[in-house]
Specification:
By secondary structure, this protein is mostly helical. It is built from 7 helices and no strands.
Length: 151
């Protein structure tokens, strides 16, 4: 049998979390499966792994924002919960691209798109984001691109 799809992996991990009485991981997986199901109903088709990766990236972003707010609101226990969920969700993302590799590719994209300065950021991002979807955070891509465009 080939590699498991993300949905199959989530199903297996849900069973493991249930057996292991890991309620936070179990709730995180259930929540993600719910988001996937809603999206499938919305688009009237079963989602592929790459679509699911996009949903996971969005969910991680939401959790990080919530963790930041809980940190500012002096709620360390809730901040920790959000960060643990980020860690669980990150396990389902493709392997992250090392920063050196990302830097080199962004420099290539800048040359390919003939980008000159910060106003050309859109062109660079349009090429970089689809290529690194789920493999690098958009914010990191943007900051590196700006570093080279304004440097």
């Amino acid at each position: 049998m080939g590699q498991m799809t993300l949905k199959e992996r989530l199903q297996e991990d849900q069973k493991t979390a249930l057996r292991g009485k890991n309620s936070l991981k179990l709730n995180t997986i259930r929540s993600l499966k719910s988001v996937i199901k809603y999206k499938e109903i919305e688009v009237h088709k079963e989602l592929e792994d790459e679509d699911i990766v996009s949903l996971i990236v969005t969910q991680i972003k939401k959790n990080k924002e919530a963790a930041e707010l809980f940190g500012k609101g002096n709620r360390p226990e809730l901040q920790e919960k959000e960060l643990q969920e980020v860690a669980f969700l990150s396990e389902y993302l493709p392997k992250q691209v090392p920063e050196e590799e990302l830097r080199a590719r962004i420099q290539q994209i800048i040359k390919e798109t003939d980008a000159q300065d910060a106003k050309d950021l859109g062109r660079v991002m349009k090429s970089a984001i689809p290529e690194f979807k789920g493999k690098a955070e958009s914010a990191l891509i943007k900051s590196l691109a700006l570093e080279y465009l304004t440097g």
